[in-house]
């Protein structure tokens, strides 16, 4: 039976460390501030935004939100981003995705000052990650790296297979793992035989959004398995992309869903906001 990686506990510890840093900054007259922009009424986005506001409150980061009408124009959205870019009291700007289809999300991400891009989505920050330079790393892959660190899992020389190549999880995680000297393979929907690729990996990361996709026959004995997926079944149950029951019998480490990668994402966002505040006040 695998060691279950306790993301809740690592996230709690991370938030605690961030809270201490915020206290130190406040003594110097600096209060880190995050501004979240949400467009429209997406129910899932509302839940995520609420989690972010709660986390800010917990660690002492000032929080501000703009709920914009779903019909807002691209021009108005860019004007707001520009205003926040120029507001010295705002350290981090987060544009909650998805946006309504008439808006150009890539242009909006590019409009955010990369020094305030605490989500790590700006091409400048993505480029810096590729170059192995210090930058804002997208919060979910960053959270996964923090879990490896917390459990003293050294990626150097390991074969890592990442299933999923999204801009927010799979692709930045490739760079994070490469930067830690892993040998990385990426699978996606056009991969001919995911099982054949995954079953030789020392570390398997599933980030696809398909309930219980990774079965025991897809992982080798003692593999480390990271489950990024969050899938709600018709029964209301929340499950990951990994068939936890069977895979946990074979793996050496595994993240559960919920309570694995999920809690790390918001904790690393708090980490990034404090980093931004420190850099902007140097
Ligand atoms: P996404 O943008 O939908 O990307 C899914 C990726 O999976 C794509 O690259 C797709 O390949 C690949 N894929 C789909 N079906 C596949 C298959 N049968 N075999 C191999 N690859 C396949 O998803 P995402 O935003 O990365 O999210 C993935 C999952 O993680 C979702 O369940 C999401 O809710 C969850 N998530 C969790 C957190 C967290 O904080 N824990 C954060 C973000 C996302 P193509 O590129 O070829 O289409």
Number of helices: 10
**Could you name the CATH topology of the largest domain?**
Rossmann fold
| Bound ligands, each once | NADP nicotinamide-adenine-dinucleotide phosphate
Query: How much strand content do the residues show?
Result: 15-25%
**Dominant shape:** globular
Assign a percent range to the helix content.
40-55%
- Structural class, by secondary structure, is alpha/beta
Find the CATH superfamily of the largest domain. Answer: NAD(P)-binding Rossmann-like Domain
Separation of termini?
48 Å
Query: CATH first level of the largest domain: which class?
Result: Alpha Beta
For the secondary structure, the number of strands is 11
Strand and helix order: EHEHEHEHHHEHEHEEEEHEH
Question: How many distinct folded domains?
Answer: 2
Overall description:
With 282 residues, the protein is α/β, with parallel strands linked by helices. The protein folds into 2 domains: 29-113, 3-Layer(aba) Sandwich (Rossmann fold); 139-261, Rossmann fold, CATH 3.40.50.720. It is 41% helix and 16% strand. The chain has helices at 7-27, 43-59, 74-85, 105-111, 123-130, 139-150, 170-179, 194-198, 244-247, 262-280; strands at 3-4, 33-39, 62-68, 92-95, 159-163, 183-187, 203-206, 224-227, 231-232, 238-239, 253-254. The chain has a 6-stranded parallel sheet with strand order 1-11-8-7-5-6. β2, α2 (43-59) and β3 (62-68) form a beta-alpha-beta unit. It is globular, with a radius of gyration of 19 Å. The protein binds NADP nicotinamide-adenine-dinucleotide phosphate (NAP). Residues 140, 163-166, 168-170, 187-191, 194, 207-210, 228-231, 261-262, 265 line the site of NADP nicotinamide-adenine-dinucleotide phosphate.
